[in-house]
Every structure is written in C-alpha cells, then in structure tokens.
Amino acid sequence: MGLFGFGKKKKEEKKEEEEAGEEEGEEAKEKAPAIDPNANLATQVEQIKIELTKINATLDAFKEINKSTAERFSTVNEQIGEIRGQVMDSNRAMGKLEVKATKAADLVESVHPDKLMIEVQKQDGKIEGVRSLIESHEEMVKNVMDQLKKLRNELSVFKGVEQVVKMSEEVKDEIMAMKRVTAMVERHADRVENIYAEAQKSFNAFNQFSDRLDTMKADLAEQQQKIDKIDAKVATFMKKEEIEKKLNKFEKDDKHRKKVLDDIEKSYKQLDEKFEQLKAELKGAFDRRIYKAEVLSGAFEKFLADNPDLVKGLDLTKFLEKYGGEEKKEEKKEESGEGEKKEGEEGQSKEEAKEGEESGESAEGEGEEKKEG
Fold first, then answer.
1. What is the domain partition of the chain in residue ranges?
2. CB 196 within 8 A of CB 351
3. Closest C-alpha among 362, 368, 360, 370 to residue 198
C-alpha cells in the first residue's frame, strides 16, 4: 500500500489531529481562569461549573474528532481492499496474456517459412523439367511425322501389290495414332500450364501469409510493450471485457493461420500427384508409339530392299486417291473432335482459375478485416 501513499496520509492525519488536540488543551489551559480562593463559596461553585462545562465541550469535540477519524479509517480500509482485488485481477490477466503470447510465438516458429520456400523452389524445378521433356517429345514426334511423309512419297512410286496396300493401311493407322499422341501432348502441355498457374497462385498466397506473419509479429511486440507499460502503471487497469476481446482476436488469428497452412499443404500434395501422373502417362505413350514406328519403318525398308522388281509396271494411283481421300476425311473428323475436347478442357481450366481467384480474394478480405480490427 506504500505505492499509493495511503500510509503516509494516515501518519500525517494522525500527527495533525494530535497537534490540534495539544493546541486545544494548551488553549484551554491558558483560557481557564484560576479559581480565586478568597472568593465566596457561591462564586467558587459558579467558577467550577463554568470549568466543567468547558471540559464537557472539549470532551464532545474530542469524541467528534474520534468519530471522523474512525470513519476515515474505515473508508481507507475499504479502498485498500478494492485496490488489492484489482491488482490481483490485473496480475491474473497479465499472466494469461503472457501464456497466449508465448503460444502464438511457438505457432509462428513451428510453421518454418524457410522450408516452405525451399519446397516451392523444388516444385518450380520439377515444372521446368517436365516442360523440357514435353519439348523434346514434340521434336521427336515432328521427326517421326517427317519420316512418315517421306515414306508416303516413296510409296506413291509403287503400284498394285497387296502387301504394299496392307503396309499403307498400317502406316495410315500409325499416322492417326501419332496425331492422337500429338493431341495428347498438346493437352498435357495445357494442363502443365494450368498447374504452373496454380503453383504461382499458391506461391502468392504464401507471400501474403508471410506478410501476415510479419504483421502479427509486430502486433505481438506492441502487445508486449503494452504489458510492460501495465506493470509500470498499475493505476490504469485493463477491463475484463477488453482482455476477453483481445484473447478472442488471438484465437481467431490462430485458426486462420492453421487454415492457410492446411490449404498450402493440400495444394502441394495435389501438384505432386499431378506431376507424377503426367510423367507416367507421357513416358508410356511415347515409348509405345516410338517403338511401333521404328519397327514399321524397319520392316518397310527391308521389304523395299528385298523386292525392288515386284511393283514395276503396276498402277496404284486410283487406290492411293481413294484411300488418300478417306485419310483426309478421318483427319478432319479427328481434328474437329480434338478441337471440341480442347475447348472443354479450356473451359474447365478457366472455371478452376476463377474459383482459385475467388478463394484468394476471400482470404485477402478476411486478412484485411482482421488488420482493421
């Protein structure tokens, strides 16, 4: 209680009352007239009565002074009790705030933003590797198509052999298969671009999350400074409602951080699964198609080398015109079907991008509302 100066006030009041009592006693002694022994008995009795009335008056004054001092002491004791309760409540609230601040700091340290940045860089490296593989496969497909065109030009020289007809049909099937493979490669390239856009969005979300972490660290530093100021200024106590509001804010921030971390982990898992699936599909399809093309080209070269005189004097122009027209019709149908598929996939990718943008805007709106609060 020495902090508030109540003990000093009590001592000063006691001293003032004692000095006032002493002064009144001295004044009464000075004012009290001495009883004249030579006076009559009646005068002496009257003088004694006067002295007694003065003494009674002084006693009544002392009683009033004692009552007022007792009332002051009771009010001071009540105030001291209230102040003790407030000090205890403030100490408890400060202890809870310290526990919450330590928990928040531990959560921020458990996130490990450096590790998250390393994982994002690894994913970027994987995307670049898949891109290079797709480009190399596209070049291989172009080379195969050029070789098949050369073979078709060489076949136009030959005329009317059944084996040549069968070989042309097989070559036609292989050409169609190669076109399908090219369509698949283009489709997968579009998917890879979409995945890269999603990864870029997740990286932007991670940057926003790091900015929020910095703001939260600054808020924690401000809260620590406020707690230190509360220790020095105990007279300005914090109300219970304000403490509950701040605790609720801390809990909401913790929930939002956990939600953002879960979303980031889910997006990374989905990216890994998509990359693995793309690798497996592209590798299997290209290995099968390239193997078939190599076998067919080798067999056809061997056939030409073994039978150079078999097709002399024969006419295959009608057959080539007939099957060439059918090949063109089938190519047009496949191109129209592939265009429809691409349009559907582009619509799906646009819808997914819109949903990702809406989710990012909602997360940014929540972060701004929390900052304003």
1. 6-104, 112-372
2. no
3. 360
- Tell me how far the alpha carbon of residue 129 is from its chain's centroid: 29
Q: Cα–Cα distance between 46 and 44 in angstroms, integer?
A: 5
Identity of residue 63: K
Write phi, then psi, for 42 (nearest 5 degrees): -65, -45
Smallest CA-to-CA distance from 193 within 363, 40, 345, 29 is with 345
Which of the two residues, 108 and 318, has the higher pLDDT score? 108
Residue type, 309: D
Lowest-confidence pick of 12-16, 21-25, 29-33, 367-371: 367-371
Alpha helices (H) in 156-239, listed in sequence order: 162-232
Predicted TM-score (pTM) of this structure: 0.22
Residue with tokens 């006691």: 14
Record the tokens describing residue 285, joined without a space.
């399809």
Q: Which two tokens mark 368?
A: 């701004």
Helix (H, G, I), strand (E, B) or coil at 258: helix
Residues 6+ apart with CB under 8 A from 358: none
* Per-residue CA distances from 22 to 12, 34, 237 (Å): 15, 20, 43
Give the integer Cα–Cα distance in Å for 198 and 192.
10
- Which structure tokens are listed for 290? 């390239």
* DSSP code, position 161: -
Tally Cβ neighbours within 10 Å of residue 158: 20
What is the rounded CA–CA span in Å between residue 30 and residue 34?
Answer: 10
Most trustworthy range by pLDDT among 74-83, 103-112, 304-313, 340-349: 74-83
* Residues 28 and 54 sit within 8 Å (Cβ to Cβ): yes
